[in-house]
Amino acid sequence: MTENQEHLKRLEEQWNLVMAEDERKHALISDLFGHISDLTAQLAEAHMDLRDRKDMLELKRTKLDQAEKQIEDLRRKTVGGKRWIPEDVCELTMVTQDEHVFSMVIIDGDNMPFQDEFVRDGLLGGKRVASLLRKAITEDIKTRFPTIPANAQVVIRVYANLKGLSKKYRELLPESASFEDFVRGYNTVHPTCDFIDAGCGKECADEKIKAALKFGLGDSHCKQVFFGGPGDNGYARVFDSFLEDQTIRGQITLMAGPPFAYELAAIKDKFQNVAFDNIFRGQKLPNETNRRTSFHITPPGTPMPSNAPLSFAAAAKVPTSPAHSAPVQLYCPEPKPSPNGVILRNRLGQRVDSRLSYSQSDFSSLKDRKLCNNFHLLGKCFYLDKYGKCHHIHGEKLTAQQLEALRGIARQSPCLNGLSCSQTDCVAGHRCPREPCHLENCWFPKEMHGVDSQVID
To answer: Where would one find coiled-coil regions in this protein (predicted)?
Structure first.
């Protein structure tokens, strides 16, 4: 090899080293930008939470300052040249409380959509619906509580996945103004009217709404808490805890809109109800695939496109197979049959559901009939025993094949006890029936995905 060739080889080696170093620098910079993007999103969410807390705190601080000022004015008030001191401090406290009464309206915007006409009008529609809602709430309060002070405030909080709703309205109302303009208009009407972005996760709005409920019910100045979110069974657990407390029940009003979910429908009559049909839709937004899900789904054997969102609501729209299709088998490998009273578990001690086999035709026909799972599968109904009525069908006895299909339907709802469930008569599911699954839109928690279904003796 000549001296020139050796020199050229050394130059090539140095060049390769320089290129490799550049690639490492580019990779580092890309990672840094990705990390900055994640931190920016987290910061934005933290700012939103902080704003909510500051608004609530500012409202309470303002009311406290006003109350203290009025108390001081009363103490300095003179009658006949003498300073007037109230004889009954408790009576004075009640007077100041009545003068600072407010009502709180909490709405799950994903489950309680406004009428399309308001969204279609964009900025003006948002302003109009906020004004109408404030007026409707105020009139309802004055009708039920005639002695309420005229200056009583109405605090309205709408929590929703704004990104998901915006996309849905673009599909539903393509000729309308932007959903962002609608929200902007809504937020400009009154300082106590807020349409708040809760984020994309299912739990985001849930936790904010529960916190707002706790705040309203825990404030002695709050006369009434209006709640709008009838389409989500998850809230039934919250309101069920209030059933034994007559005082709190009297402080809650459930707003009607889309049909009440099964568990909420069973207890809604225990609370006061009100409907504003000119403001809210009577049905959920069609083909809803954002934060919420539906329990009415097709069996696991129905094929789904790999790029389709695997929410339950989306699954409900998948065409069913012909009436005489072969039996459908669930997701898991074939475990050993479960004797009565025996719970199958894997090597980690997690519960494993036994294999089911049913026909597509039985599954489809039973799914549309809205049968009571507990009554047909267990021979008893909790809602019938506790409340004297059940909104699902009891009816005639099902065949063995139909019962097997009904078990498959029941397992589309996740068990609240999770993988450690030890109830021998549990009919709910302990693993998501769809694998792989798009977690963001799935009703099953993360730990109920990819569960080992190999049974250990």
So the answer is: 50-77
